């Protein structure tokens, strides 16, 4: 929105669209921690693509596609994406896997592509039902190495600035 002519700035979304593919013991024992949890209805990625296409049409350079949805296990697809697009510089990454393994693997994969000042958002830091995301954040970046920012009116999302 702020850079409508910047066709190099893209949104890339990764999800299985089939829910959690696997669980690690570091994810704890909450009842939502189950293989397949958060699966979508069949073909949801196509519906989401239609919505994103609609948004794209509002862009002044709508003939250039500036989003991508990548279906599959992000522990594999994020690495493949970065191998196929080695020029990638990441300004903002939002983590909402809820789980230890994909958060850890994908954080490690994106670090070489982060610019100084990049924002990394998290949906489940300090969340009792999803301890794995905080564990992955701690192991890769370190809880006591970053100031964690939150909106005072919304306790769920948080972010750090990568320095
Ligand atoms: C709480 S949902 C959030 C979905 C979406 N961000 C939203 O707000 O509607 C967690 C998502 O993480 C996805 N997920 C968990 N592990 C994954 C993995 N290894 N690879 C890709 N997606 C994964 C699940 O499929 C699920 O859609």
Question: What attributes characterize this protein structure?
Answer:
163 residues, Rossmann fold, 4-stranded mixed β-sheet, two-stranded parallel ribbon, globular, binds S-adenosylmethionine
Written account of the structure:
The chain has a single domain (11-162), classed as Vaccinia Virus protein VP39 (Rossmann fold). The chain has helices at 44-57, 74-84, 100-110, 131-140, and strands at 11-15, 67-71, 90-95, 114-122, 149-151, 154-162. The chain is globular, with a radius of gyration of 16 Å. Strands 3-4-6-5 form a four-stranded mixed sheet, with no helix packed on it. It has a two-stranded parallel sheet with strand order 1-2. Helices cover 28% and strands 23% of the residues. It is built from four helices and six strands. The model has no long low-confidence stretch (mean pLDDT 97). It is α/β, with parallel strands linked by helices and 163 residues long. Bound molecules: S-adenosylmethionine. Residues 14-16, 19-21, 38, 73-75, 96-99, 102 line the site of S-adenosylmethionine (SAM).
Q: What kind of sheet is the major sheet?
A: 4 strands, mixed
Total strand segments: 6
Hetero groups bound?
Answer: S-adenosylmethionine
Fourth-tier CATH superfamily name: Vaccinia Virus protein VP39
What is this entry, summarized?
By secondary structure, the chain is an alpha/beta fold. It is built from four helices and six strands; from the N terminus they run βαβαβαβαββ.
